Amino acid sequence: MVADSLPEPLRQRIASAWSFRYHVEREAQARFARLASWLEQAGAPPPLVELARRSSEDERRHAAHCAALAHEYGTPVPGEVPVVLPEIAPRSLSFPQKLLYELVAASCVAETVSVGVLMRLRPVAGNERMRAVLHELLQDEVVHSRLGWAYLAHVAPSENVTFLGRFLPDMLEVTAAQDVEATAPTPEDEDPALLPHGVLPHTERRALFASAMRDVVMPGLDQHGVPTDPAREWLGRYGLATPPG
Q1: Mean pLDDT of the chain
Q2: Check: CATH 2.40.33.20 for 2-237?
Q3: Cβ–Cβ under 8 Å, residues 76 and 15
């Protein structure tokens, strides 16, 4: 077993990362299922409703992969229990605004960042099994990201989407929680030996997050009329600044 040959602190760090991803994927599974229902309720184009449903099923598969890997690295995850899924959109928003908020946060931001991470990890996977898992996750996350961008493009011509601008820092706070945490990274957090096991070192993860914001997310939001200055200011506060769009 690959994990047996690893130093214990490094093995624990890898196991913790896959365990954390398991919980993220389970939440994403529930979130996309709810978004499918909301999209249908909002009268969204049927292909987008179906894409949200497909995304939920994809996340179920992803969670199973993450659980298996966490177990192999020595941290079994709990059995599949119901996910308590909070609404991340502010209560003050209308239903159409909440739907758009959650899709932008989940797909345009979180899934787009995930695509960048997986693109970096796939070529350096340590074995064929890890490479296959990362490839499957990458293919699916690209599609999940497109869901948010497609819905934003669908509503932007007829609805005011500028309200999203002031909430972008909140979205980034959730997505980048591990990267802006106050505690200093441990040596294991920065060890390049993490890469073959599907885990990015802390500094590289921060850099990829900033790159995804600069090269994909901010230009995409700007294109659809969402003000990005609040997000750029937030990124600057955490040393993740991007140049003006």
Answers
A1: 92
A2: no
A3: no
